[in-house]
Amino acid sequence: xxxxxxxxxxxxxxxxxxxxxxxxxxxxxxxxxxxxxxxxxxxxxxxxxxxxxxxxxxxxxxxxxxxxxxxxxxxxxxxxxxxxxxxxxxxxxxxxxxxxxxxxxxxxxxxxxxxxxxxxxxxxxxxxxxxxxxxxxxxxxxxxxxxxxxxxxxxxxxxxxxxxxxxxxxxxxxxxxxxxxxxxxxxxxxxxxxxxxxxxxxxxxxxxxxxxxxxxxxxxxxxxxxxxxxxxxxxxxxxxxxxxxxxxxxxxxxxxxxxxxxxxxxxxxxxxxxxxxxxxxxxxxxxxxxxxxxxxxxxxxxxxxxxxxxxx
Length: 312
Description:
seven-stranded mixed β-sheet; 7 strands
């Protein structure tokens, strides 16, 4: 039997996350993020289509022709954790903040690999429940704290200088103000702490209208550009900033997501994902892949920076 649809009253599940021609104000974006990710059919969709059956709901790095979205997402995790560890060595005494932790994929990987404390901060309550259940299944829940919150309201004041490391996967695109968020993150990091985050952006010089294939399906205010992020990080006080440009992988990932929809359509519908919702996503991803192939309007990559302080 298919899963019962959990769309809020008055919202057509086929249209969940359908934001055609819209970019949201700073006040609107948080509610739209919950709408996009928290409903049962949306959580199922993202696990199948962006996670490839796993808990990592973010873009990926392809290392061989046979890689699918699952493998590519895992390669991104490996690259991000390597960058985080090289920026400031991760030990069992570290405390990592996973900002916008979603289903908790990279939180669980950090817990398993390093055995340190992890705080998973995320806006969507049902995603948080999935995160907690998986951590318990893996036996790593003892060192995990899951906090529900909206970073657009500011991070908790008691977190000042708290975390040795901050990691975030494709979350900043949903921020009301990326510059303000980076300042908040800097404040909650201990001296010498490291930040690594990935995000999808408009390419430097891209017309905002050309990004419609992404903004029509995602709760955003305005997509940032790689050069803007570097500037925002420096203004927020970060040092040793840099970024890995993985934009060449985006077209392949969009097409990989389309393959996941095609291969798993029946299974997703059996679990309550509406056919119209899948159709909307197929149209959007087709548009994204085609415009990325022809014009390269999207950028994606991984940024790193440190808070001034001890190197290790």
